[in-house]
Amino acid sequence: MRPQLLANAELIDPASGRRERGAVLIRDGAIADIAWGTASPAAPEGAETVDCAGHWLLPGLIDMRAFIGEPGAEHRETLRTASRAAAAGGVTTLLCMPNTNPPIDDPAIVDFVKRRARDTAIVNVHPAAALTKGIAGEEMTEIGLLSEAGALAFSDGVKSVRNARVMRRALTYARDFDALVMHHTEDADLVGDGVMNEGELSSRLGLMGIPREAETIVLERDLRLVRMTGGRYHAALITQPQSIELIERAKAEGLPVTCGASINHLVLNENDIGDYRSFFKLSPPLRHEDDRLALAEALDAGIIDVVVSDHNPQDVETKRLPFAEAADGAIGLETLLAGGLRLVNGGSVRLERLLHALTVRPAELLGLPAGRLTAGAPADLIIVDPDVAYILDRASLWSRCKNTPFEAARLEGRVLATYVAGQLVYQYASA
């Protein structure tokens, strides 16, 4: 590829917090030079110049939680379709969860996913390996071998490890390999037949509720095990103030603990379920508006480390059902940034905090060199028009499934172009 000069842009570096006009020179898949201010890097002869027209230029987003059907459920999503949805949403790196068929619990399957992503995906795709064999919660996987094969984290996806002894052992072995354990904190026994947040609204709708304690009981147990073992622990999704308090106390103790929140729980609440709209059925469930506000405050304060899409495609046969019978999950790769900008435009989260949680912090947790606007970093970049407003049409989405909770929603901020290793992989084309 010939060198490219992305000029006349508003540069935003989430790592340093710097934000001003400038230009970026790309060479050999990496950022070769950055000019802050009115000056421009000296472009080599033959370089292609791209006028960013004053729009934002920032590092591509890193999504730490995306469920992809391949292998085994390609009718829901493939690495190819997920990567195109990611590129359209400004996500240049995604971590795919191990809930596949077969599960990603063997080095050979890790290698398969990496090779398939290399051959079919247009963004960076890294596998997370299963924490227990078969995602059954009974016997931990070979963490060392899976790490050597290329797994960047360990998780049982949407399942919690019930057995405290197994969880303790997994955290101990993960510590020895400096591996990250990402856990879904939800007690399956307390969840039972619940389908939404337990409270007044669930009673009025006649739906079985899921108590907040289903989350905090598992989280508190896990944090005690972290104190015992010293393993790196990441609570995949927290949704309410009690969990925030537990995480804050653990960090104050110096424990190697981090946490994430989904864009759905940061932007939506249980009232959006309305007249039993199954696209809003999630795991964990959407909470009360007070819980949502507490999450946004915790994100702005830096207690919540990362924001994820929790991308989980479901087809018509499993989603277009009565609410209690519908499958959990919503797609989110294409609405991750636009949803986050709702928080910024609403004044509840600062832009620098949002971008830090979407780029720098996930890169740090996964040990990746991305997420920074600095010379030598990978040229995984996006150009964003933050001011454009539009109504989301699910027919325009790239994901194979269309179960978005933002259908017909008014959004602001559109990704105009996405570069991965300096190569243009997505460009918005208006109708």
From TrEMBL:
Domain of life from the UniProt record: Bacteria
One CC-aspect GO term: cytoplasm
Gene Ontology terms for molecular function: allantoinase activity; dihydroorotase activity; metal ion binding
Record carries keyword Nucleus: no
Keywords of the record: Pyrimidine biosynthesis
UniProt GO BP: purine nucleobase catabolic process; pyrimidine nucleotide biosynthetic process
InterPro entries for this protein: DHOase (IPR004722), DHOase/Allantoinase_Hydrolase (IPR050138), DHOase_cat (IPR024403), Metal-dep_hydrolase_composite (IPR011059), Metal_Hydrolase (IPR032466)
Protein's UniProt keywords contain Manganese: no
UniProt domain Dihydroorotase catalytic: residue ranges: 55-239
NCBIfam families according to UniProt: PRK09059.1 (NF006558), pyrC_multi (TIGR00857)
Protein name: Dihydroorotase
Organism: Chelatococcus reniformis
